[in-house]
Amino acid sequence: MRILGLDPGTATTGYGIIDEVEGRLSLVAYGVISTEAGEPAAQRLQVIYNELNALLDQYAPDTAGVEELFFGRNITTAVTVGQARGVLLLALANAGIPIGEYSPPRIKESVTGYGKADKAQVQLMVRNLLDLEETPRPDDAADGLAVAIAHYQYQHFTSLYE
Q1: DSSP element (H, E) containing 81
Q2: CB atoms < 10 A from the CB of 136, how many?
Q3: Of the four listed, 37, 84, 102, 144, which is most buried by Cβ atoms within 10 Å?
Q4: What is the 3 state secondary structure string of 9-50?
Q5: What is the pTM of this model?
């Protein structure tokens, strides 16, 4: 099974792609979709949509996990991240890819065992679970991989009880 994980953002959307074969996870690819800060919102969303579609064509994931929106203090940031997240969900739905959505604490818990783990702990576990020599960079890409791992964990757990 090929799993895509997405950490939404308007400026930077992190992605991670992993394969699961007989319960073992392996890295396929990771990176970020970046947009230019000075561009109008519509063009930035179009870049995210087009680049995600290119990734879907190139890697053909079977399923995808997307981080849910986390509301901090800055409502403007939350709105723009929500727009990027909507574009991601639209592209995945148009491609017919099943989607799981996970809050940041659920992602942290599934990767580290602790829902309030810090970023360094999550990155260390991503590195260990995927048997990587280095921590994936930038942070958004490592977060995308964490979402993919969380999605696998939840899908695997759910399948045990079906």
Answers
A1: helix 75-94
A2: 22
A3: 144
A4: CCCEEEEEEEEEECCEEEEEEEEEEECCCCCCHHHHHHHHHH
A5: 0.94
Amino acid identity at 86: G
Which pLDDT value is given to residue 69?
84
2 has pLDDT over 90: yes
Catalytic residue among 19, 67, 101, 118: 67
E strand or H helix at 137: none
Is position 7 annotated as part of the catalytic site?
Answer: yes
Q: 130 is written with which tokens?
A: 């995927």
From 20, 140, 143, 162, active-site residue = 140
Q: What 3-state DSSP class applies to 105?
A: helix
Q: Where are the beta strands (DSSP E) in the chain?
A: 2-7, 12-21, 24-34, 63-67, 99-102
